[in-house]
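Posted in: Structural Biology > Protein-Ligand Complexes

Title: Requesting predicted complex, fe (ii) ion in pocket

I'd be grateful if someone could produce the 3D structure tokens for the following input. Sequence and ligand are given below.
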Amino acid sequence: MTFDEKIKMLNDYAIAWYSTSQADYIHEAIFRAQGFGKFADLCKEEGDEELEEARKCTERVIALGGKPVFGCCEQPVFCEIKDLLKSWDDEFRDQQAVEELEKIAASLADDSITRKLVESFVECESEHKTWVAKHLGLIERIGYDNYLIEQLGE
Ligand SMILES: [Fe+2]
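-- Reply #1 --
Done. Output follows.
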């Protein structure tokens, strides 16, 4: 990976994660207002993690001597938990998000700091992918109404 490619990759991920974290906080507020506090907490956790990932990308761009860029990726907003879960699941499958990060990590053999950073993103996004699959499996097993009862909370 050339220097310019690396800076672009980091800037692109920063923009994506600043944007997805904003969407996570919107979903936190929507689902908390609906009474689904437990699910809202998960959205908040995801938002915090993705904001942290974005900040680390920006920091790395600067440490490498690159120029951070401002941007935003339009994100869908859902008012139904199952629609959000489905959208995340589709994204992980269609965009191969985790596999793509693994490929990038493998192409950073000459830059161990950036490689370790990307590897930490692989770990974080794998966890996200796993919990989404688990929740969709739960809905399948117990039905959406029962699942929603499980998500009630302050
Ligand atoms: Fe994520």
